[in-house]
């Protein structure tokens, strides 16, 4: 049976993909080279007949957190079809909420996890400080991406922001984490894996006077070679949580020589395919193994 594959993307409004190379088009070009029929389709488009595809490559559903209930319904719809999906649907669902960081922490990995502020609760600074030993807090939605609704609050200024935090938490779950000074001073490392094998790495450095490393906030990105200990730590995470994934990205920071996870991206990571000469050949090799055997 001939293959016809969907590259799963989103309706771009420029919010999460400005100043980026279009990796959907890169993936499309790779599939062309492999002689595989395909289309780029938007996950939220109700007109798409997903049953017409032999498999789905979930690449860039970058607005899933803006429409999370609908996204979860879509995952269930695709699961009922029983067609192959990469990354697999259970992994996608698990990775869609930052609750997974608490699971990774409970498994003994060094991680910047934080504390969940449940929807409808009234956050208590005293309780937060019992869990998080930091003079600066970072607050973000539990289901989020692209630094949306993420902000930094010095503990001494909590009273100035308390009303805003309380209002936000009435609408959805939030996560409060310690501010990691090393992110501002050095940056955040991203190690990319294909078929659970290491491919390439970048260092994302925030713009001056900011703490968000995303390129659309003015951050800079450079390819780097990770230290052996950092690579080993990232590989252990992938082996544990992403053993059967087509792609994965481990984001983290080095604190006193120890690599701490900040994100384990197994749902829709930007793969920095245009930054490393190894990236596209490694991606193509992984896709060949998955799709052509």
Question: Would you write up a description of this structure?
Answer:
The chain is α+β, with helices and mostly antiparallel strands and 293 residues long. It is 31% helix and 25% strand. It contains nine helices and 13 strands. A five-stranded antiparallel β-sheet has the order 11-10-9-12-13. β9 and β10 (197-205) form a beta hairpin. α1 packs across α9. It is globular. The relative contact order is 0.15.
Which features characterize this protein?
alpha+beta, 293 residues, 13 strands, 5-stranded antiparallel beta sheet, 25% strand, 4-stranded parallel beta sheet
Provide a compact summary of the structure.
With 293 residues, this protein is of the alpha+beta class. It is built from nine helices and 13 strands. The chain has a five-stranded antiparallel β-sheet.
Distance between the termini: 14 Å
Strand order, biggest sheet?
11-10-9-12-13
CA-based shape: globular
Mean pLDDT: 92
Share of β-strand residues: 25-35%
Number of strands: 13
The helix tally amounts to: 9
- Low-confidence parts, pLDDT < 50 over ≥5 residues? 211-217
The ordered string of helix (H) and strand (E) elements is EHEEHEHHEHEEHEHEEEHEEH
